[in-house]
Amino acid sequence: MPYITAVSRLHHALTGAVAVLAVSAAMASSAAAQQAGPDAIINIGSLYEPQNLDNTAGAGQGVSEAFNGNVYEALFRLADSGEVEPVLSESYEASEDGLTYTFKLREGVTFHSGDPLTAADVKFSIERVMAPESKSSRRNSLSTIANIETPDDKTVVITLKQRSISLPYNLSYVWIVNDAAKELTSSADGTGPYRLENWRRGTSLTLTPSDNYWGEAPRNGGVVFTYFTEATAQNNALLTGAIDIIPSVQSPDSLAMFEGNPQFTVTEGVSTTKELLAYNDRVEPFSNVKVRKALARAIDKKRLLASIWGEHGTLIGSFVPPTDPWYVDLTGVDAYDPDSARQLLEEAGLKDGFSFSLDTPNYDPHPLVAQFIQNELGKIGVKVDINLITSNEWYTKIYQAQDFQATLQEHVNHRDIVFYGNPNFYWGYDNPQVVELIASAEASATVDEQVEKLTEANKIIAEDAASNWLYLYPQIVVSSAKVSGYPVNGLNSQFFAYTIEKSR
Amino acid sequence: MSVATQDDLSGGQKRRLPLTLIVGLILVGLHVAIAALTLFWTPYGPNDMAGMRLEAPSFAHWAGTDRLGRDLFTHIMIGSRIAIQVGAGAVAIGALIGVSLGILAAFATRTLDDALAATFDILIAFPTLLLAMLVVAASDGASLSSAIIALGVAISAIVARLTRILAKRVLEMDYITAARTSGTSWLQIVFIHLLPNIWPTLMVNFALQFGLAVIAEASLSYLGLGAPPPNASWGRLLQEAQGTVYTAPFGAVAPGIALVILVIGVNLLADGLRDYADPTRGRR
């Protein structure tokens, strides 16, 4: 019967994801049998497999999730509370003029390979991020560094071209790697509580407690990040016990399965992930501020947020989430008002509208957001062509080649308003006043001065509608009720695993 | 029904319509009618965010609404049109290329025939979906037309191989030799003798390929390689409903039902056509 074959083919397409799930469930259940207490393996289900294992080589947010604080440590750490804490830096001193920082390194720290941590490793690691070929999104924020000296094995002296008040903060992004390490895109040699056991591309990444860790040992017997391409499979894995934790739930609909069930814990924390309609501000007509403002006013973001996230999430009027010190409520700047949007387009000489191509990453929620935008902008005569692309294509076409008109992207970073002070960033926003404010905020002598300047910059980018900030994601962690001690805020998509415990 | 009564009267001269053909025609006809209707009217505009997020099926929204509050029944109706467009388009392309190449191979010299036959076999060895994905990847971005062309190319190989075999069998007949020796041109042979002899079998195959093309397009769209949004392909509807399958299961069930009805319909139609074209095989 031919139609049986035909139907079963579709069935194959639909159940591919389920098959992956079944395999991972089988793997995990064999491990779960003996597991509880300090030797328990914690299984974390994630949608963000790293592209590679080097955060200076465009590895994506997955590598921060798996490696920050777990495999690699930095001189400082951005704790889940948002505080900057010392890690490998035991103490530091800044000179009177703020141009020289002297860091004393912690004693008795070794890399997983057995090499001791020296000042030369720190110098190597910072220079790696600053190198011209580095793809780190934070490269620019370290450009104030003029020189790094290593007077002895445990002392690092950083000389700056100008004051940089957030130097310790920025250094929290710099993994300290062994200067003798090779092939960092596929292996790792850090100082963290876990070493990389293995990485099975497309499937999982296994971390084992390091024997020579300088600090307190992890409260579990290891961590496995299992990668899913699709949220339904991920949720099912948690339901069946194949994984213990989902670090960030990506749709409100999956919560229905876990809320009110005593076997699971649902925690809503504070996220820094912003959904953006980013224009290429260099090209017509997006170079015109009136056009950008018109587009900001034409989209009913409240309804969009409700469509994507139900009752969760927050509206934002600029790139700054409420957890950043320079937050002010700017949702009123270009509030939803389609009539004035039409008016602005007319003033911009585009009475009959225009059309543009929207490069849309092919994973949730971007295609749905794109359709919403297409619909809303259609009402003011702007035609949107949705062009679906993969996350790899996004990186090469948009982030690197900057060859696009507009795109959708989620920006996960904490304190990333500084990207608007870089005219070479992919969205090409270039306002000399903002560039100056962000640069001089960095040169502030006090935190108050820095906050004041960045708040000013924040207001200007909002007035300029530099991009279209659609909403702030909620940060929702769902776990089995047996595990506890995990971070709930997921700042910068970090997920420190060493304090996670699993009970019977 | 009327078929049963005809059954009782069998033995009459008139060839009866097989039940499969009638049911197939009804199911496919339903889809064709809906597809035609969407050209003039749908319950809501395809982009009207008329309802709330994920409404359950109701009198106002027969299949409920999606996350943006759009009417799913409207999208499923438009999906019918897209499925038929893809099926018909892909089969037309496949038939045009496949029948031409198949006949060419049948008439060709030994070497060319072998080369063509090998090419068909290699193309057939590729899974249809994979071949389609390759064509989509090579073209400039996924679109409805790239999906149609891709599937058409994949189908053409199957049709070509079938045509070649059928045509060879006919070309060996004595009356063809007679026609050739009497100076009939090869074009005349093709149109007067060959095609009328092989078309019933080809038609059955086209119907089968139509069903496969509809499924393949749904799979491509499901993978994000078919018609881009806002084209309401069933595959894309399924993909979008996947994340909400626990809170709003009907969003995944409804396009699935539509897809199954059409594919079963064309397969029954194919079975029925075969029985009709070859009464000795269909009689029970």
Automatic annotation (TrEMBL), chain A:
This is Peptide/nickel transport system substrate-binding protein. Belongs to the bacterial solute-binding protein 5 family. Residues 1-28 form the signal peptide. InterPro entries: Peptide/Ni-bd, SBP_5, SBP_5_dom. One of its GO terms (cellular component) is outer membrane-bounded periplasmic space. It holds the Pfam family SBP_bac_5. Its main location: periplasm. One of its GO terms (biological process) is peptide transport. It is found in: Periplasm. SUPFAM superfamilies: Periplasmic binding protein-like II. Residues 83-410 form the Solute-binding protein family domain. Keywords: Signal. GO terms for molecular function: peptide transmembrane transporter activity.
UniProtKB/TrEMBL annotation, chain B:
The lineage of its organism: Bacteria, Pseudomonadati, Pseudomonadota, Alphaproteobacteria, Hyphomicrobiales. CDD domains: TM_PBP2. It comes from Aquamicrobium aerolatum DSM 21857. This is Peptide/nickel transport system permease protein. It holds the Pfam family BPD_transp_1. It is a multi-pass membrane protein. Signal peptide: none annotated. Keywords: Cell membrane, Membrane, Transmembrane, Transmembrane helix, Transport. SUPFAM superfamilies: MetI-like. GO terms for cellular component: plasma membrane. One of its GO terms (biological process) is transmembrane transport. Its main location: membrane. It is found in: Cell membrane. Residues 80-270 form the ABC transmembrane type-1 domain. Belongs to the binding-protein-dependent transport system permease family. InterPro entries: BP-dependent_transpt_permease, MetI-like, MetI-like_sf. Gene3D superfamilies: MetI-like. The chain crosses the membrane at residues 21-44, 82-108, 115-138, 144-163, 246-270.
